[in-house]
From TrEMBL:
The lineage of its organism: Bacteria, Pseudomonadati, Planctomycetota, Planctomycetia, Gemmatales. Keywords: Signal. It comes from the Bacteria. It holds the Pfam family PQQ_2. Gene3D superfamilies: YVTN repeat-like/Quinoprotein amine dehydrogenase. Residues 536-655, 892-1039 form the Pyrrolo-quinoline quinone repeat domain. This is Outer membrane protein assembly factor BamB. Residues 1-21 form the signal peptide. The keyword Signal applies.
């Protein structure tokens, strides 16, 4: 009892200590907040309630004029500009008082409207809405702003303006709208469709048709019933307009100033397994060789984010800019900081891969490059900086040299800027700037009173002094921060996330605060090394999406007002990849890793409007992805996945290698790894497909023979079997069943053939063999069944007529492992992540099941998610093993999972073996096997135990007669146990038999006295009653062996023909290398691939003495079976009978 008390005490102390260590860090304070403005607003509201409207109007107008751009909060979280509260209060005025207010502001509002109309400019119209939002001209300003936004392809912005006129508008309701509201709603539906969210447009249109079935008006160049016009437009594909100036370029992180990560147009789905080019990032002279990835996590070294401009890719590091040719990958250093200043960076700063969490970004637009160079350490000032001590970073603009060609590299330093701070106080730029309409905007951090103040500065591209500088927030100085924070353009606002508790927006043109939000920060434990990726806000569809590094929520704001629309969590997010087609996509770092797509409007990630993909909860994101309106390119630690945006399923075969940060432009996918830049140059969207041209060539009949006699093909060409032949057994119980062989073969001149041969019935009546020319993808499985070939390759299943040689049906699906014929005319296709049952006659899919029990059609899936390892059909059931250490019992006719249980977590060494009563024996672990019936009930179990010596490989099983032989893999060899099939009791009481080399249990045979097991180089026999070794015999070198047993002979032959030793041919060439011998070397290797031998060994089963050896000239796969009055061998495109 005392011991228990002590344990409890220790646990409590640990919990308390951990809780103290995990204190919530301080949240940043919002700059620009005014408590005075809040007091004045409260007083004006009280006057409205008290009926003193005239005084309230005067007070509100003064607030607008004097402090309308200050921030006010009611709850300490959401901060709005004071003018928003003013407009809300004015909208509550009684109609007579509102009329007086409108008369009062009519003249200045009308002047701004006239200016905006005459110039078709937005700035006068926006000023009108900021200052006189409730005036009569404001309605025309809203309509004109919406029209201008729609013309420029800013559909979400246009939708936001039109919504201001609706009764249910956010914030305040514009009173006395003159425009017909059905027409306004129709325009909103049109904007929703044109911004790519066709599903949302369809839902809203359905509601509109019910509410306004007879509404008429003029829209999209047509006059008539609005519902009819919209329905017609929705059935067509709207034109896609792109926001970047050059849609072929990738101008900054996320592709554009909005960081939306969207590729205009189509993004390729099928990428080759290897990049077109790989180019190492040139090391800095004098720094030394490229180092190893930092031990704190390889994702930290993914520091480079490529941009693309005018057919070239660019990356930057702490002191250089490097260009890469998009087609060839040729690298060239465009800028080196040593050209304008003394070396101010230590070697560790320039070493590759980077050892810190820094990210190097740059902006490319208008033929210029903009980037930050200097020490990645923001605070405190790095000790290794020799110059610019208080200014450890600089903004640089590179331009083309004067009078250069239009495609010249930007190598000239056009200007450089230090952070705009007074005096010599330390300050540093955060990251690369935004460049919008000739204005350069960048965030910087400075030290003030022992605290870090984050601010935004705006310059004209050719100006030396800032147009405006605005403080955003301030927090206690964070020691050792190296990751920069970036700005995002959201309509007329610039949004900044401090990743210290604040998201804030300022006006692009004036720098005045627009809104802010203070989010709760999460606890961090000392030494917590969890890496959170560079995660700037993403702006799309009139919203801003933020996944703060120091928070556990995904936040969605209205881009104009800053209102929090929705949030999701608690989850740890890596970053927001981007937004397209009405969805926003974010990658999840924990607690279960994965990727999610949310409805951008509602935040739903369930059902039709969103999805979650956590198929592998341990698979981390590895780099920054991108997306189009159809697919997402998602880099992970194991592969690059192409995910469908609509439903989150995998759209193409993954490229199974870790990638990095992605960019896409000019039909090239760029990947920036820790030390290299890759380019996938893609000319077409779909991968080439091979089309077979079957034309049968009949072979001669198989004659009855008393000796070994091959069938001579009429074509006169030797054949090489390239896939295992499948022999159907001929037994006395099934005399009608043919002994068929089906295989893939290849002639010496490279022609591919499908081979079918056989003898009908148990008496081996003569039948024909067929060769079918086949030019398609090489199948991994060939089964001759029902007069046809059933073929399976990595990505398709087909049935080919063996007479005409034509495909009866073909189903293209990825991820195929094997094909298994099952009952009721069905065939099961087993893939890594999907099971699919087809009708054998038609190829129609009857059911499909993925490895997460979802009824889904086959498609590529997350590589290391749950996988199917093995499957076997017995009775009307399927028994399936998964990589998660579970086995399922599935109803074969419908695909329903009837039962599941634990089993081996490594692939079964042998498929489950049938017992005579219909049950099967399955390996449930390295030393454990179980007999289960068709209801998956365990009849008996056996465990060999002694776990310490196990290798971990699943036990092998072989059923022969009334005995079950269990092959247990141990460190010192393979132990063989003999069990009774009825009860699972051991029959060798003394000790198990021991094999010194590995063996395939399925090749073991037994008679009444002995069990025979071929291994590498040996054939071993054990006594059946004691398990003691009876005899050993040597076997010649071969890859693997197979056996058959007749009345007085044990026949042993290899599974694959033994071919000439290619290494010996190469050694001969290397002893006398000469160009004249190369052609002969190639011919020799080609000939040797078709020169092989199948040694057929006949042993006396009683003594192990070799009685006879026969050699068959053949290459490729070999199959053997016993039937009728002989042993039948399929090799080299022919069948042989041993009498």
């Amino acid at each position: 009892m005392r011991r228990v008390s002590r344990i409890v005490t220790v646990v409590v102390l640990l919990i308390v200590g951990t809780a103290r260590a995990a204190e919530v860090p301080e949240s940043a304070n919002v700059r620009g907040e005014s408590t005075t403005s809040r007091k004045r607003l409260a007083e004006a509201e009280q006057k409205i309630v008290a009926g003193k409207s005239a005084e309230a109007i005067d007070d509100l107008q003064r607030i607008l004029d004097e402090v309308g751009d200050t921030l006010v909060t009611a709850d300490g979280k959401q901060f709005y500009a004071a003018r928003q509260y003013v407009h809300q209060f004015l909208a509550k005025l009684p109609d007579p008082e509102l009329k007086k207010y409108r008369d009062r502001v009519e003249e200045p509002a009308a002047k701004l409207l006239a200016l905006g109309k005459s110039r078709r400019e937005t700035r006068p119209l926006l000023e009108l809405l900021d200052r006189y939002a409730l005036s009569r001209p404001a309605e025309d300003a809203i309509l004109l702003l919406a029209e201008l936004a729609f013309e420029r392809g800013q559909f979400a912005m246009a939708e936001g303006y039109w919504k201001k006129l609706l009764p249910e508008a956010e914030g305040y309701r514009y009173p006395g709208v003159k425009t017909a509201l059905p027409l306004v709603r129709a325009k909103i539906i049109l904007a929703t469709q044109y911004r790519g969210d066709r599903q949302a447009a369809g839902r809203v249109l359905a509601d509109f048709q019910k509410a306004e079935p007879k509404a008429e008006g003029h829209i999209a160049g047509k006059t008539g019933n609005l519902s009819t016009i919209l329905a017609e437009l929705l059935s067509d594909t709207p034109p896609r307009l792109s926001s970047p100036a050059n849609p072929a370029d990738w101008s900054s992180l996320g592709g554009s100033p909005s960081r939306e990560g969207r590729v205009p147009g189509n993004l390729h789905r099928h990428w080759p397994s290897q990049p077109t080019w790989k180019t190492p990032i040139p090391p800095v002279e004098g720094v030394g060789k490229i180092g190893a990835s930092p031990g704190s996590g390889p994702v930290k070294s993914l520091a480079f984010h490529p941009v693309v401009m005018d057919g070239r890719a660019y990356i930057a590091d702490a002191g250089r800019v490097i260009a890469f040719d998009l087609r060839t990958g040729t690298a060239e250093v465009v800028f080196d900081q040593r050209s304008i200043a003394k070396p101010a960076l230590g070697k560790d700063t320039l070493r590759l891969p980077t050892a810190t969490d820094t990210d190097f970004t740059l902006t490319a637009t208008g033929g210029r490059l903009y980037f930050r160079f200097g020490s990645p350490l923001l605070f405190p000032v790095p000790a290794d900086v020799e110059a610019l001590v208080t200014r450890p970073s600089t903004l640089i603009c590179l331009a083309r040299p004067p009078e250069s060609l239009p495609d010249a590299l930007p190598t000239r330093v056009a200007w450089k800027r230090f952070p705009p701070v007074a005096g010599d106080g330390p300050a540093s730029w955060e990251g690369s700037p935004l460049v919008v309409d000739g204005h350069v905007l960048a965030a910087f951090v400075r030290s003030e009173g022992g605290r870090a103040v984050q601010a935004i500065a705006c310059y004209r591209d050719d100006g030396e002094r800032p147009i405006w500088v605005t403080d955003v927030c301030e927090v206690s100085t964070a020691a050792g921060r190296t990751r920069p924070e970036l700005l995002t353009l959201a309509g007329r606002n610039v949004v900044f996330c401090s990743h210290s508790g604040v998201v804030a927006a300022v006006n692009l043109h004036t720098g005045k605060p627009a809104w802010a939000y203070r989010y709760p920060r999460i606890r961090r434990f000392p030494g917590d090394g969890r890496y959170r990726d560079l995660s700037p806000p993403v702006a799309a569809a009139g919203r801003v999406f933020v996944a703060p590094n120091d928070g556990d929520q995904l936040l969605a704001f209205d881009a104009e007002s800053g209102k929090l629309l929705w949030q999701d969590g608690p989850l740890l997010f890596d970053h927001v990849i981007g937004a397209a087609a009405g969805k926003v996509v974010a990658t999840v770092a924990g607690p279960q890793r994965g990727i999610r797509a949310y409805d951008a409007a509602t935040g739903s990630c369930d059902g039709l409007t969103g999805w979650r993909n956590h198929d592998d909860p341990y698979l981390p994101t590895f780099g920054r992805g991108l997306l189009s309106d159809e697919v997402i390119a998602w880099p992970t630690a194991t592969a690059l996945y192409t995910i469908r945006l609509a439903d989150g399923t995998v759209a193409a075969q993954p490229v199974r290698v870790p990638h990095g940060n992605l960019a896409y432009a000019w039909n090239v996918l760029l990947v920036a790894t820790a030390t290299e830049v890759w380019g996938y140059v893609q000319e077409g969207d779909e991968p080439p497909r091979e089309s077979p041209q079957p034309r049968p060539i009949l072979l001669g009949a198989i004659p009855p023979t008393e000796t070994v006699r091959p069938i001579e093909p009429k074509v006169g060409l030797p054949l090489r079997l390239d896939s295992p032949a499948v022999l159907e057994r001929v037994t006395a119980a099934n005399p009608e069943r043919a002994a068929n062989v089906g295989a893939m073969a290849r002639t010496k001149d490279g022609q591919r053939l499908l081979v079918r041969a056989g003898v009908a019935g148990a008496e081996f009546v003569t039948s024909a063999a067929t060769l079918v020319p086949y030019d398609g993808v090489r199948p991994t499985t060939v089964v001759a069944r029902g007069g046809h070939f059933l073929l399976a390759s990595d990505d398709n299943v087909s049935q080919v007529d063996s007479v005409r040689g034509r495909a009866i049906w073909t189903v293209t699906q990825p991820d195929i492992i094997e094909v298994i014929p099952i009952r009721n005319g069905l065939v099961l296709r087993v893939g890594e992540h999907h099971l699919v049952a087809y009708e054998l006659a038609t190829g129609r899919i009857c059911w499909a099941l993925d490895s997460h029990k979802r009824s889904r059609l086959p498609e590529p899936a997350i590589e290391s998610g749950a996988r199917f390892l093995s499957a076997v059909a017995f009775e009307d059931r399927l028994l399936v093993q998964l990589s998660t250490g579970r086995r399922w019992l599935i109803e074969a006719a419908k695909g329903h999972v009837l039962k599941e249980a634990d089993t081996a977590d490594r692939e079964w060494a042998t498929p489950p073996q049938r017992l005579t009563d219909g049950a099967v024996v399955v390996a449930d672990g390295p030393s454990r096997v179980s007999a289960i019936d068709t209801a998956c009930r365990v009849l008996w179990s056996f465990d060999a135990k002694r776990e310490a010596s196990l290798t971990g490989e699943a036990a092998g099983v072989r059923v022969i007669g009334d005995s079950v032989y269990v092959f247990v893999h141990r460190n010192h060899g393979v132990e063989v146990e003999r069990l009774s099939a009825l009860a699972g009791l051991t029959r060798w009481a003394d000790r198990p038999a021991l094999l010194k080399a590995d063996a395939d249990p399925l090749t073991a045979l037994a008679d009444d006295e002995r069990i025979y097991v071929p291994t590498a180089g040996q054939l071993v026999a054990f006594k059946l009653d004691t398990g003691r070794e009876a005899w050993q015999a040597e076997l010649p070198p071969a890859e693997s062996w197979q056996t058959v047993l007749t009345q007085n002979r044990l026949v042993v032959l290899p599974k694959y023909a033994v071919t000439a030793n290619a290494s010996a041919v190469f050694e001969s060439f290397l002893r006398f290398p000469h160009m004249r011998r190369v052609l002969g070397l190639l011919h020799t290797l080609a000939d040797d691939s078709f020169r092989g031998n199948v040694p057929v060994l006949l042993f006396d089963p009683r003594t192990g003495r070799l009685q006879q050896r026969l050699d068959i000239a053949a290459v490729g796969s070999v199959s053997v079976d016993v039937g009728g009055d002989g042993v039948w061998i399929a090799a080299g495109g022919a069948m042989y009978r041993l009498h």
